[in-house]
Amino acid sequence: MVVRWQGRGRAALFGRDCLDDHHGTGRRFAVTGAEIHAPGLLQVLESYASLGLPMMITENGLATDDEALRAVCLREHLEALGQAVARGLDVRGYLHWTLMDNFEWALGTTVRFGLAANDFATQARTPRPAMTLLAEVARANAVAAAQEVAAE
After folding, report:
1. In this predicted model, what pLDDT tens digit does every residue of 99-125 receive, in sequence order?
2. Is 25 helix (H, G, I), strand (E, B) or coil?
3. Between the chain's N and C termini, which has fewer beta carbons within 10 Å?
4. What are the pLDDT digits (tens) for 2-54?
5. What is the domain partition of the chain in residue ranges?
């Protein structure tokens, strides 16, 4: 998220969300309100690399009903991760958030962000295009080979 410093309350430590449009065009948000900004992943990895410890992405994904957006955002984040590795950052792994739609404590079953859609009534799981994209990236160990999958 783009944040703005504010000198009181929790915002003094963490800032508060800045939704102003002066940060540039093309800002994208998940249905939960979280901003989707793949370059931020690279920035975070670069900032923590100075600790000299191996890193692992343990939750990355977004809540959306737009499957094309889900695949594009996954590809963009994997590209940022690839840039980090190419720059020599010690990133050991990547875990998408999450394999299938699930129950979220604050939002129940209303948000959808799994690689597989989950029909909560029947428990049927249906792979989404982003699942195919992630599988292709993993098989090829490269994002470029999976570009065509995301376009489908």
Report:
1. 999 888 888 888 898 999 999 999 999
2. coil
3. C
4. 665 566 666 556 666 666 665 666 778 888 878 888 998 999 999 999 999 99
5. 29-151
**Cβ partners under 8 Å of residue 115, min gap 6:** 61, 96, 98, 99, 100, 127, 128, 130, 131, 134
Which residues lie below 8 Å from residue 13, measured CB to CB, with a gap of 6+?
none
Please tell me the pTM assigned to this model: 0.82
* Amino acid at the residue 84: A
The string over 139-152, giving b where at least 16 C-beta atoms fall within 10 Å of a residue's C-beta and e elsewhere, is eeeebeebeebbee
d(CA 23, CA 84): 24
CATH 3.30.870.10 fits 29-151, yes or no: no
Amino acid at 78: L
Compute the distance between CA of residue 30 and CA of residue 134 in angstroms, rounded to an integer. Answer: 19
4 to each of 16, 22, 24, 40, 131, how far by Cα in Å?
A: 5, 12, 15, 16, 35
